[in-house]
Design goal:
426 residues, mainly alpha, 16 helices, two-stranded antiparallel ribbon, 6 strands, single chain
Length: 426
């Protein structure tokens, strides 16, 4: 039964009509009850709770499911006020609504507007923190991917999967999990460093074995890094609760895209010939005639995705992404205004300048100038030369300052609001 709040006068009227002797009624109704007695029993099962002047109604049967808590034990009778015909608690009302939700659903969520210490004090008062106060899965832990323990089936194998999944997703679960995540960050940094070094043909670390066979150190390190990423991804895939959820998770998609170019490159080299084409040779005109050139070019672009693997290890970055997602209306408004202004003033500047200024060769060039001017960057590669064009440019520059100031104020306010809420949730 969900929480119901009514006016105090209505509560007192119900109490006067049927009394509050639910314990006696339930004991007396051991046999088969008539319809009238059943209705009376339902009303008598209602429990009236007054918290700092605000009345709540629940049922004794709902509270009795947790006998080790204050409201589920006989100790609640100490707070019975005959004049109010209800239990009275001079406690925090916001916290109590969350606690009452725990009694009704078995799930507990702290209000975002309540300080953590205050909420813990209320939980301690109502004895919610005791291990036997709820069922095993009453308070559901949620990991960083938004997956709870209830997503896993019961059983020994699923228990191990749940533990491995928590080990991979929550660095705070154990010291070993923290060490694993630190090692993951080290491999990410190494991967990005190798990505940068491979693009310079003058950088290469090679060594030979006793049989005088040459090896590329950067290529070998890259294999080690990709092996680690692949192992982490496969283990996470095998412990994920459902297949669809794995492939719809943003972090898993980024991980797949970060290792996919390596395997595509290996397969391409294997099916072509013995020539090994590295990133340092991709821009070579002779290499561009190779059939695998286009594939390697695309793979090199997708390897940039490795940088985004850092997001998984930063709660602040994840929070920023959430803020941007919630402020999408304001951002869309900003992009729409930028599009309208750039097309309008870019077209106007083209028709003003194209006869005397060779820099404005098309409306697209004018739109580029408008975007650079509105955003107050001003590269200087394109500039008006006529007096009318300079007047329009001055107006566009002034408009750009206002254009950035008004929407950005809204976005910053939205960011601060959502950021504070996310911090409270943590």
């Amino acid at each position: 039964m969900s929480v119901a709040m009514i006016e105090e006068a209505t509560v007192i009227a119900l109490s006067n009509a049927y009394g509050n002797n639910s314990e006696e009624v339930r004991r007396a109704n051991g046999g088969k009850a008539t319809e009238e007695e059943a209705d009376h029993l339902k009303l008598a099962d209602l429990c009236y709770i007054n918290v700092s002047g605000k009345q709540y109604i629940t049922t004794y049967s709902c509270l009795d499911r947790y006998p080790n808590t204050l409201l589920g034990s006989p100790d609640r009778e100490e707070f019975w006020i005959p004049e109010l015909k209800s239990y009275y608690f001079n406690r925090n009302r916001q916290c109590f609504e969350s606690i009452l939700t725990f009694y009704q659903t078995g799930k507990e969520f702290r209000p975002v507007t309540v300080d953590g210490d205050i909420y813990e004090e209320e939980r301690h008062f109502f004895r919610i923190e005791e291990p036997k106060a709820a069922t095993e899965d009453a308070i559901i832990p949620i990991d960083e991917a938004g997956i709870s323990d209830l997503c896993f089936s019961k059983g020994g194998w699923n228990l191990m999967r749940r533990r491995v999944h928590k080990f991979l997703m929550d660095p705070r679960s154990s010291r070993l999990a923290t060490a694993w995540h630190i090692m993951d960050i080290i491999f990410i940094c190494t991967s990005i460093t190798l990505l940068v070094l491979e693009t310079d043909p003058n950088i290469g670390v090679a060594f030979t074995d006793k049989d005088h066979r040459a090896y590329d150190a950067i290529r070998i390190l890259n294999v080690v890094v990709i092996s680690f990423f692949t192992t982490d991804l496969l283990v996470r895939f095998s412990t994920w609760p459902n297949l669809l959820g794995f492939f719809t998770n943003m972090f898993n998609i980024l991980d797949i895209l970060s290792i996919l170019p390596f395997f595509v490159t290996v397969i391409t080299d294997a099916v072509q010939d013995d020539t090994v084409i590295t990133d340092a040779l991709v821009d070579n005109p002779e290499v561009q005639q190779h059939r695998s050139y286009v594939v390697l070019r695309v793979c090199r672009i997708f390897r940039i995705v490795r940088v985004f693997k850092f997001i998984r290890h930063s709660q602040d970055l994840i929070m920023i992404i959430k803020v941007v997602a919630r402020a999408k209306k304001e951002l869309c408004l900003l992009v729409l205004l930028l599009f309208i202004f750039s097309v309008s003033f870019g077209s106007l500047m083209y028709y003003i300048e194209h006869t005397t200024n060779t820099q404005f060769t098309s409306i697209m060039q004018g739109c580029w100038w408008a975007i650079v001017t509105i955003t107050t960057i001003g590269y200087g590669d394109i500039a008006p030369k006529t007096w009318l064009g300079k007047m329009v440019g001055s107006f566009v520059l002034t408009l750009g300052i206002v254009f950035l100031a008004l929407p950005m104020t809204i976005i910053v306010g939205k960011f601060s609001q959502v950021y504070e809420k996310e911090k409270v949730k943590e």
